[in-house]
């Protein structure tokens, strides 16, 4: 008799590796509804405990990819390179990087996600722009990439349906933090987008899913390895997520900061990270011969304003209000705006990304549960950065709120995020911690 | 906000002990349908990996008990003592022991189960008797115990509904072999039957769920400990299941052997085990002061024929055909009866219980899946026992079959179960391996 689903669960439970047909049959059965949620969640928990080899993870990725349609990108002639971030606080890099990489000559078909917990989502940020549509058909998506070089959209129901189903299930069964499941979820969607290369930004620190450098490197290596074995050239940067990126966290607030960055006036960390990632995308595409040349080119393109033009075109093609670029008041704005004051004079020694993320969550900028709705207007702006000098009574950050009952908790969280030291501190943690190319492993 | 089910799953997944309200809310939610199967199976798999302390197991047992009704046994004045076996091949002990313990003055309200895999089930055996009903209401069950001292019935839907649901789920999600889940399943049902004491027969060997002595002792100790902490005096024997018990395996065939045993003509191992368990039941009930006195009394009662009378009364009260006691031809009989011949002369050195169990399964005496139906007529009879002398060409056992297409495989399995050595072998493994009273731990 053919394999029963419970036999496959028992095999993984007992630490035996699963073979191709077992992984394929299980995922296929789950996608079509033949295998119920309760068997999938039991297998997911067994995978959480016993892991998967890099071969099994590749097989799982392929099985998930084959559960649905792939995007037909044959009409796009430019090298198709995407970037994916494991998620952090104030992480608006995609919004700047997509248009920048397009302005540098690449095609960026970016399928992005929504925020959950303290982690923001690129789609939520873009949806704060009046009219911006993230529910495109595959054809519309490819057309927009063809026209302006970049489109940032949501996963369509036909792309990797196994992942849509499995992700929702993992969310409610305690099976999110499993590297093979994370890797298969990310890589199946990237493979479905028909990419020529992928750059990963693996966040590491209090505001990230991976708290330690070792965990972030494990995830990055697993992603790079599955990229290699499935024929998608992939490289990863492990980057710091102990303090938020830039000076804002919250959807519309981050759009304003992204536009300023595309205008050439971005905060140093956001600009550095965006240029570093863009340079890797250009090298992966063989558009530039080395990182130094590529970085220089990306930096000059950002300053030129060309990327802002791509962003404006992308907005318009997605049905968004192009006017927000020159008039941020067209974006949703919070009713209450209140500064957080420094209690002492000195140098900022720490800005705890997790606490800022929690303050945003309390204000309604994020979701506790996937079914929650998001308030696009609220969040934190004008944050001071580690190493900067502040004077007692000076503002450390500004809260934007529509919820009077949440202000007290949000203020406490935000105030506790900032530490001030008497003497100047060296910002020991570099922004880029490690690079994983899959070549030295 | 109150605990979400996934938070409880995550806690167990991360190795933290669960507290009373978490266990109670989860089981209550699962029973009422508020918590879906996919969260229960994820928690069950996390329990498989991280286990449960004896305190958590007791809380789980209580939560399951409280999911339904309990049997009102207040009308029964005799001490109510039951026996539970972890299951084996040819294990018809309950069918002899229930009536025997009743004949010794105890009340035996026995809620029993069906077979799965190579393990037979007491209910399947009894259902081979024409008319015997195992689906009784709690009231009918108590009435029969009141009238003849013993009733062997199926779990009613209102008794521990959480276990009915969870057991079916575990069966298809690879979460059966988890000691805390096994213990809570057994002990919740025993507590619901309103017992004064419980004797356990934990089988150990090739034909048992627990293959090693260490595993059997772990299960036995966990059961005895939960009995202690929930106020149900419990003791356990760990007994050998490397060769089948008695000389038959298969439903109607085992009824015939049980009746012969109740008549005083039983095989030595079945009689020894039944007396040993009955003695412990009498001591737990404080009906006899020590094991020697109790064993002697049980042995005399078995020889007296009084237990056979109780069995006949129990049959009749369950709607069964009382005539089977004097006329075994009233039981279902197989179309084909074929002996397995000894290939050489010597002493039987091994009868592999697992292989005999598989032969029975192939013939249709058991279930591969819980939804399979059972052929009551088929199985193996007249098995030689370890230590007995056989001559080449003599019968080692007789197969009873209704499936021509299964005979070849069944014969191969049955033949492979028997090993014959040139010289007499000492039967090193004692029948009773270890006793667990919970007092020496």
Short description:
The structure is a homodimer of 441-residue chains. Chain A has helices spanning 5-13, 20-32, 37-50, 54-65, 93-103, 122-126, 138-148, 161-171, 179-192, 213-229, 251-262, 268-284, 291-304, 306-317, 353-363, 407-417, and strands at 81-85, 108-112, 150-154, 197-204, 234-240, 336-341, 346-351, 379-381, 389-390, 395-401, 418-421, 432-436.
Question: What would you note in describing this structure?
Answer:
2 copies of one chain form a homodimer. With about 450 residues, the first copy, chain A, is an alpha/beta fold. Chain A has 3 domains: about 5-50, Transferase, Pyrimidine Nucleoside Phosphorylase, Chain C (Transferase, Pyrimidine Nucleoside Phosphorylase, Chain A, domain 3), CATH 1.20.970.10; about 80-325, 3-Layer(aba) Sandwich (Pyrimidine Nucleoside Phosphorylase, Chain A, domain 2); about 335-420, Alpha-Beta Complex (Aldehyde Oxidoreductase, domain 3). Helix content of chain A is about 45%, strand content about 15%. A 4-stranded mixed β-sheet of chain A has the order 1-4-5-12, sandwiched between helices. Chain A has a 3-stranded antiparallel β-sheet with strand order 6-10-8. Chain A has a 3-stranded antiparallel β-sheet with strand order 9-7-11. The interface of A and B includes residues 5, 45 and 174 of A.
